[in-house]
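In the present case, backbone shapes were mapped to integers, as reproduced here:
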Amino acid sequence: MLQKTQRSTKVVEFARRKMREFRILTTLQGTNFRKGVKRLSKTKYFIDPDIEHVLVFPSGTKFFDYDIYLKRHILLMDKASCLPCLALSPPPGSTVLDACAAPGNKTICLANYLKNNGILYAIEMNKRRFKELNINLKSAGVTCAHTLNGDFLNVTIPFNEIDYVLLDPSCSGSGIRNRNDDTEIIDEQRLERLATLQIRMITYVLTKFPKVKRVTYSTCSIHQQENEQVVETILDQFSDTFQLVDFLPQWPSRGQTERTRACLRASTDDTLTNGFFVACFERIIKIDP
């Protein structure tokens, strides 16, 4: 089994062959993301210091000019969107569920952690997006995925076999609006409806999957109603069986309440990414006295 550092080396070697005019900034080892971005130029890239299989390229890089992208050897994602997969880090051989999978970027990322060795259920309710999901998984070479078109809350899967669940449900999308647009009108009733659905979905996972080890909950929202308040409600219900995990202690932006400090927030200002929120729940293993 390849180690993570070996995987990074292979990705870099591949990028060097396929994008010869680019040069990796190897001197950035140990530095932080913000300093690395400042040192980028048109023909340079570096390995992300937080997520080692992520390569950081200059804004505006024309990937459509390169087979490395067209043949789906690399996947274009905002860094923050990679965090839920990092939090799960399912080892090869695991059984994983991506509950709201389309368009499939996180599903592909999970398959990468599994090395295509395991079972990866990917559920999408919308028929058009389900078709897009299947196309993307096929073009990326994902062979371990079983896709299902239906409502996650009603689809039948082997609940007692699932080890890891990635839950990235519908949200307000407030974190990916125009970054220069500060005129968003907050619809409190819509946020309340979304939060109710989000709580319902997390509750379903934590009660329906008896052997699940880790569950990530993420949104591309900046609102506490969909983030910290949702997590606080879940902690009130499941504090005896699940706890939050701080899976990336060096991350600069944290949950905004005392009980959610282990959660990660992302933003244009703090992390040079889209607005994002991630919570990682881990089952508490109780040892009999």
Summary: The chain is about 30% helix and 15% strand. The chain has two domains: 4-70, 79-283. Confidence is low (pLDDT under 50) at residues 1-6. The two ends are 37 Å apart (CA to CA).
